[in-house]
Design goal:
The protein has about 80 residues and is mainly alpha-helical. About 70% of the residues lie in helices and about 0% in strands. It has three helices and no strands. It starts with 8 loop residues before the first helix and ends with a helix.
Length: about 80
Amino acid sequence: MSDSTPPGRADIVDELVDPRLFLFVVTIAAVSVIADLLGVGVLGVETLEGAMATFLVMTVGSYVGVVAIDLLWRRVFAR
């Protein structure tokens, strides 16, 4: 049986998936949203629906942003 994954494809997936970074981003977003729901008032979250949307946006945006910057940094300055 032949392997259907192209040779360079596994390296890209390994660079994009970082479970430790994801856990860190989820923790920061959860703490921020919970603190705001408890009354800190920094994010402007007032309802549970607003909290869920804020949590998702913070998690996805942070993870994608950090991974993109990290990949760019490695590609530009690795040479």
